[in-house]
Design a protein that fits this description.
single chain, 399 residues, alpha/beta, Rossmann fold, Alpha-Beta Plaits, 3 domains, 4-stranded parallel sheet, elongated
């Protein structure tokens, strides 16, 4: 069983191994609450996962260590296991789904682990790892459904209570549930009045469904760029702990996740991955009752694939109305572009691209379309520009 003593023992074991990560007060991300950010994206290996992996390996017997360890992961647990095994002199074989970012895969290899890439998502890698363990032996280090792993993650809860006095709520990302299970257990045992909220990606809401249905649910497919929480089924142990100690679980969309990544970069100078920012996204988009409260959001990881970072930033800009596009119908005659550009400039936007296309079927023979891309302040600013262009006699085309 999970106990506070086990979590305290994990905290003692992890001293000098992992970082006590910063708790950062953010005054601008969610103006109507006192929001603190627990920056596990700045942890060694760039994720909280090393806490549970290291503690689990620390309690293995000499014989178990000699047999080596096996793990499956979308990347962050893999790096935690690989680093822990390297420091303990243990052989590690890790199964990683093909959807995991190359950066996480290569980082795992560089730490000395043997890596097996499996087509599919986390659950497919899990099945391959279990089959390998049954055939070849070794100790399976589960990424979330293991009491010692959960105890290691629960040390974050202890740190939060040491760093902030009487938080009203703590928000944590949820994939399989290891992080929130450990954190919720520690918080509820030490401060029962503190609310604990979980957040999943809308395209991978297995724990959310399970929590709402009051039974453990496996979903058929997952679809989210937040690979670290793309899990089809919550753990048996973690579902039970969440049912007892978590107050509510909500979901956020990929667009909301992208916006949270962009916001953390701009306002806090923090780089976080999709799975790492879902707690911040839930706070930003009003998914939880935190107005006027003292709240801590856990940023669980920062290992974002730089190959998709520009796309994520672009999506965040589009979602918040910072990048906007207009398709304007007009007569093809001199002076039109100048007039439209003047309207946009006078209202403080910046044109970044213009495309001129002739009108198509069922349009005026002298007509054309002007596709304008521009940088705007927000959605209201875009709507102001749209209205001004319409008031000047131009037609705004949809699509």
């Amino acid at each position: 069983m999970l106990t506070l003593d086990r979590i305290y023992q994990a905290a003692h074991t992890l001293k000098g191994i992992v970082r006590t990560t910063d708790l950062i007060l953010s005054r601008d991300i969610v103006p109507d609450c006192e929001l603190y950010l627990k920056a596990e994206n700045l942890q060694i290996t760039g994720s909280f996962k090393v806490r549970g992996a290291y503690y689990k390996m620390s309690v293995l017997s000499v014989e178990e260590k000699a047999d080596g360890v096996i793990a499956c992961s979308a990347g962050n647990h893999a790096q935690g296991v690989a680093l822990s095994a390297q420091r303990a002199g243990i052989n590690a074989t890790i199964f990683i789904p093909s959807v995991a970012p190359l950066s996480k895969i290569e980082a795992t290899r560089q730490m000395g682990a043997r890596v097996e890439i499996i087509d599919g998502v986390y659950d497919d890698a899990y099945e391959a790892a279990v089959a390998h363990q049954k055939k070849n032996g070794g100790v399976f280090i589960h990424p979330y459904d293991d009491i010692d792993v959960i105890a290691g993650q629960g040390t974050i809860g202890l740190e939060i209570l040491e760093q902030i006095s009487a938080p009203d709520a703590v928000i944590a990302p949820v994939g399989g549930g290891g992080l929130i299970s450990g954190v919720a257990f520690a918080l509820k045992k030490l401060n029962p009045l503190c609310k604990v909220y979980g957040v999943q990606a809308a395209g991978a809401g297995s724990m959310h469904r399970s929590f709402c249905d009051k039974e453990r649910v496996c979903i058929a497919n997952v679809s989210t760029f937040a690979d670290g929480i793309a899990v089809k089924s919550p753990g048996v142990i973690t579902y039970d702990l969440c049912s007892q100690y978590v107050d509510e679980i909500v979901t956020v969309t990929d667009d909301e996740i992208a916006t949270a990544i962009l916001t953390l970069m701009e306002q806090q100078k923090l780089v976080a991955e999709g799975a790492g920012v879902v707690a911040v996204a839930a706070a930003m988009f009003g998914k939880l009752p935190i107005e006027g409260k003292k709240v801590c959001a856990i940023i669980s990881g920062g290992n974002i694939d730089v190959n998709i970072l520009s796309r994520v930033i672009n999506r965040g800009l589009l979602t918040t109305g910072r990048l906007s596009e207009l398709k304007i119908g007009m007569l093809d005659k001199p002076g039109q572009l100048k007039e439209v550009s003047a309207i946009i400039a006078d209202l403080g936007a910046n044109v970044t691209k213009v495309m001129h296309n002739p009108g198509g079927e069922n349009t005026d023979i002298n007509g054309c379309f002007l596709n304008v891309s521009m940088e705007t302040k927000n959605k209201n600013h875009f709507l102001e520009i749209r209205r001004a262009i319409q008031n000047a006699g131009y037609c705004i085309a949809e699509g």
